[in-house]
Here is the input.
Amino acid sequence: MTKNMICINCPRGCRLTVTRSAEEQWEVTGNFCARGKSYGIQEATDPRRTVTAVVPSAEPHLPCAPVRSNAPVPVKMIPDLLNELYQMRLTAPAKRGERLITNWRETGIDIIFTSDFPAEV
Ligand code: SF4
Here is the structure.
């Protein structure tokens, strides 16, 4: 199995080719540095992304609250996470950096506020 991808760890954007050998070993070519190798293997075996979203307020006159995951989320779980976040309606005030969700679905991933809610104007 071979996958081609672009490393997104820095602006250089190396074009990686990730191949799994018959011995179940992963080989990465096209990377300029070691970060590209680990990125390529991670992306081929368990791709993850940091999730950002906005969560609606229960009060129609208040804006949504921006949040993000504190660690990359497995790509296949992102739709479930976003669905959960968009179904929520915030009622309590929160400070930037506070957790909205702790250990989401036993992944060890927290969802944190990236600004105060409601935002000060
Ligand atoms: S392999 Fe290294 S140099 Fe190339 S894009 Fe990734 S981090 Fe940057």
